[in-house]
Amino acid sequence: MEVFNTPNKVIITCNKRLSPYLQQEVKELGFDIVRAFPTGVELKVSVNDTIKLNLNLRTASQILYSLKEFSANNPTELYEELSTIAWEELIQFDGYFSVSSNVDNETISTPLFANVKVKDAIVDRIKEKKGMRPNSGPENNKAVVHLYWKDDRAEIFLDTSGETLAKHGYRKIPGKAPMLEALAASTIFASKWDGVSAFVNPMCGSGTLAIEAALIATNRKPGLLRMNYSFMHFIGYDETVFFQERRLLKDQINKKATPQIIASDISEEAINVSKMNARTAGVEQLISFEVCDFAETHVPKEGGVILFNPEYGERLGTHTKLEITYKRMGDFMKQECKGYRGYIFTGNPDLAKKIGLRASRRIEFYNGKLDCRLLEYELYEGTREKTKVLYE
């Protein structure tokens, strides 16, 4: 099975509500989208093409290359169909693989049972053809096979990513309640920040938003920080393709970019964590870190984007302390951030009412399973008409 050079259906998954930003990235890489849906996109490309995608995408989770679609009513039929695939041409007989799945079938009480059936079909086929069986287990740092099974429709994929692409590899110390890197990148895309004007991130926590801004501004891609993907562990992998793509990533870095990125937090520990994460990402020198209350954050006069990701407590009910904080954020943006576009990411609509400003846009996101909004505020300097041209 020559999957590395054979175009076939590929599904790129992402978290809910990130699909518009994933579509934007995929198109900018020069790929045609066959179909888009709320949690991903479909392409028709080869596994070698997925190498480029894996190394470049900031908003994706997994990149899945389809091997076969078929009908299966129960585990026995699933096993029989999977046994017809030439697994011995994909997975080394002395190698290692793992199985992941998305299963909704009435004959299956737990996805783990479906995973075992997939594993058994692969192992039995390879043992029959090669006389030896590969090892398998839960770790997804080698070859990964993914099963999608809903009712009687099943599809088996090579997961070319392995460990999720949504984590970008620089956050060795996550900090308190960190925002997933793919989500952080998507909020920056949603803000339409130009990568040149100021980017101000008060309450920066572990620094994810500021770091993602610096990575975007300098065109540093996630693949620069990662050296292991599932595609490397399938038969037919040519490492020269990977290293050629990786060299392109290095060549595309915009070393002349000097965006003014400011990250502040009242916690010295949080700033220390942010600095370490930024150092790992290779962008520490691009970010000005400040230990201070958010209202004392330095805001350059030239304008740009200011983005808050404050605590938002429980979905139901509000906390007096947070109510005061949200009101102060609104006051700070109104008084100190004229000429900026202001953003507050929150999962608490009751607290959002305390900001005291009218949002010009409410962009929908999820943070985990929590329904959230990125609230946009046009912080006009002078008259509305004069300032409007700044954002056209």
TrEMBL record:
Signal peptide span per the entry? Answer: none
Q: Output one GO MF annotation.
A: rRNA (guanine-N2-)-methyltransferase activity
In its keyword annotation, does this UniProt entry include Transit peptide? no
Instruction: Report whether Cell membrane shows up as a keyword of the record.
Output: no
Question: Which keywords, in A-to-Z order, does the entry hold?
Answer: Methyltransferase, RNA-binding, Transferase
The record, for Pfam families, names: RlmL_1st, THUMP, UPF0020
Q: Please give the superkingdom of this protein's source.
A: Bacteria
Question: Which PROSITE patterns would you find in this protein's record?
Answer: THUMP
| Matching CDD domains | THUMP_AdoMetMT
User: THUMP domain location, by residue?
Assistant: 49-160
Q: What is this protein called?
A: Class I SAM-dependent RNA methyltransferase
Q: What is the lineage of its organism?
A: Bacteria, Pseudomonadati, Bacteroidota, Sphingobacteriia, Sphingobacteriales
